[in-house]
Amino acid sequence: MKNAKNRVTVAEKTIKNLKRKVIEIASKSGEDHHIASAFSIMDILWVLYEKILSIFPNKPQHPERDIFILSKGQASLGLYAILHEKGFFDTKTLESFSKYNSILGGHPMKNTKVGIESSTGSLGHGMPIAVGIALGLKIQNKKQKVFVLIGDGEANEGTVWESALLSSHHKLDNLCCIIDHNHSTDRALSIDSMKDKFESFGWKVSTVDGHNHKEIEKSLRTKHPKHPLAVIANTIKGHGVSMMKDNPAWHRKSPNKEEFELIMKELN
After folding, report:
1. Of 12, 113, 147, 259, which has the highest C-beta tally within 10 A?
2. What is the CATH number of the domain that holds 215?
3. What confidence score (pLDDT) does residue 31 get?
4. What is the pLDDT of residues 108-121, one digit of tens each?
5. What is the tally of structural domains in the chain?
């Protein structure tokens, strides 16, 4: 039991450190960024890269690697922080974020040499890319898995549901779509009964607390033969920082000096 508690503590400390790194990098860039969106998915990313994905940081283009695509590209800082933590690139590269000629743009730009599998940003595009890759792997009888993380706002895009239908038709049981369900777009258009919708398209579906590591891991390990898997992760935008939590003002914003100090203290 003691070891289990220690593991949880290590995970929590790691995620706080990742969030601190996101704040530092965003602040140094001198521009506004989607920090709250990155914090919404940080627990999911940590579980994926720590527990689920078969990755090879020293050989990032390894032919047997699993594929992860961040479709909600505005949360790129979260992805970059975890890739840096896992050793895909050095601190100098991370600190070049969003600068001229940097390989780390405000939205992901495909560069498999550093673990970025696809360019994304325009909502709804990551899902069909993931489906295409999963279908190609299936045709070649390869064992890798494909994971794509979309935002709930992306579920308003027709490409998501066209992809969902296609992947079910082809029985892509090597595909998992994680939905970051932080409800931030409910004011404009709420996607009710997300679980029912995916199930009606022939998917295996589970719903989890998107900040509970055990629930996330258990769900991502769910067996789903002959069906793609959808994991609906209920999350909080800006999770972990009180001034950001569900605060629309932080949709695209970097902290001023006073906010920076308060946030770093809270994440200490």
Report:
1. 147
2. 3.40.50.970
3. 85
4. 999 999 999 999 99
5. 1
Spans of the chain below 70 pLDDT: 1-8, 186-191
pTM over cut 0.90:
yes
- Dihedral through CA 69, CA 179, CA 146, CA 61, nearest 10? 20
Tokens of 226: 């002959």
Task: Find the helix or strand (DSSP H, E) in which 70 lies.
Answer: strand 67-70
C-alpha to C-alpha distance for 148 and 123, rounded to whole angstroms: 13
Instruction: Identify which of 195, 221, 202 has the alpha carbon closest to the alpha carbon of residue 163.
Output: 202
Provide the 8-state DSSP code for 50. I
pLDDT of residue 20: 98
191-198 contacts, C-beta under 8 A, 24 or more apart = 191/152, 191/155, 191/156, 194/152, 194/155, 194/232, 195/230, 195/232, 197/155, 197/161, 198/164, 198/230, 198/232
